[in-house]
């Protein structure tokens, strides 16, 4: 079975006024358009166009157990269009989510409360693939020696001196933990302002992009401590078709661009800056992996004719990318899947011979018996369940 699904854009303030409209070839709405969700998450379930007028969560409830259809999807597929920086954030592991959700349930914290940290008991690893020619992100904590070199370009104001002192701890992880704890919980507003001003006016050939990014963030979130936290993070410029994988504990923020995002079906977000929303510093510090590391770039592997697969090795999801152009490509499905067209007029055809032609921004639900799925023309991403986990994060 192939059936078209759709959804309307979420109008978060950081959304772009043009990126989604340009992808879909329509006139911009005039409002920020941040995300389109293709999934059954109750926050914004897709609508199924099979004559039933059901949302996807209700459709899965009605069809669960038939032809390999689960009662719930383990993943959520999105188009994400960042016109302004998103918050710096981190997601819990499965074990942390179960414990945190149970704790807040027992405490009677309403699930829709602004200060609630855990909306559900699931982890939220995620992958984003750039669709715009460049996609800018902050992902993971930079090597501390490099950060110390960056801070050395900021002069010798009071805030910078304290920042340099905090980064002087013996171990890299301890230095980063102590620094972030100070920035988010103890630093005076004047100290934050002094560091931001120093970074905005500094010059460095090695860190020119990071300092320029500071100016961008300061314009969007004046005097926010998250601007200084961002100075500790890897600045990543993805080219179209490149991806990063963000597992539990990795501090990150998407800054600008259009991408296809897939994640475990969860809404658990702990924020650490660049936001007016609630920040729970103690809980954030309990979740973040403070070990510095290179940007978490995820390489695709070949997955058949005209296809590649972004597969981080977790059971929740994998994301195939089929670029057929004037030819055709195919991909094997691992379960109930969603095919999303992002370029050209793409025709998706299942093993039964059923087919749909999808314009950019349109999607189809594909049941498992339609494997392999063939794509003719255009460019399509196919979300599906993933493999058994191969690392600790997926099972923790």
From TrEMBL:
Residues 3-142 form the Phosphomannose isomerase type I catalytic domain. Keywords: Isomerase, Metal-binding, Zinc. The keyword Transcription does not apply. It comes from the Bacteria. Its cofactor is Zn(2+). It catalyses: D-mannose 6-phosphate = D-fructose 6-phosphate. It is an enzyme of class 5 (isomerase). InterPro entries: Man6P_Isoase-1 (IPR001250), Mannose-6-P_Isomerase (IPR016305), Pmannose_isomerase-type1_CS (IPR018050), PMI_typeI_cat (IPR046457), RmlC-like_jellyroll (IPR014710), RmlC_Cupin_sf (IPR011051). Its EC number is 5.3.1.8. GO terms for molecular function: mannose-6-phosphate isomerase activity. Belongs to the mannose-6-phosphate isomerase type 1 family. This is mannose-6-phosphate isomerase.
